[in-house]
Amino acid sequence: MNVIFKRRSVRNYLPDAIEKDKIEKILRAAMQAPSARNQRPWRFLVIQDRQELDRLSEVATNMKMLKEAQAAIFTFFEKDNLTAPLFVQQDLSVATMNILLEASELGIGNCWLGLYPNLERTSHVNKALGTPENLEVFSLISLGYPKDPDAFHYVDRFEPEKVYYEKF
Ligand SMILES: Cc1cc2nc3c(=O)[nH]c(=O)nc-3n(C[C@H](O)[C@H](O)[C@H](O)COP(=O)(O)O)c2cc1C
To answer: Which CATH superfamily is domain 2-146+154-162 in?
Structure first.
């Protein structure tokens, strides 16, 4: 459970490359997520090429940090032939969360950049990536070793007044 408490959004990165085996560990964690009816509707696009990261940093206002990032993982969901289409966004959310947790566990700074359902952002991103017709982009995770040595630090977020026991 420690990683849940030390995970932070990290937005400033060192220029050190992220090792391929660590990217695979992160993707394995993503695909370990639960999904409605086990439909596993996810797809992932990994970008580590410097020029491509620089180009993509201009695509949407919240993607500027790709300029410093050493990797980007775009998540997508399949649009057709789903057994539980209503739950596809929840499936992608938990997969995205697993990416954040595994990256944090590996000491890799990470930040969830929201794309879907902001359709202005998703249309720009789908165009820039040439997303196939059967997929829709969902989220973007920027990755890089943190500049701040204290990037992963605990912040107490427990708010007991938001919890009701037995009745409201
Ligand atoms: C759905 C979603 C979308 C987010 N989009 C952005 C974003 O576009 N840019 C950004 O810098 N952070 C984004 N974040 C990160 C949040 O700002 C961050 O999680 C929040 O401020 C709490 O800080 P922490 O992650 O360090 O606990 C997003 C987080 C979520 C869950």
So the answer is: NADH Oxidase (3.40.109.10)
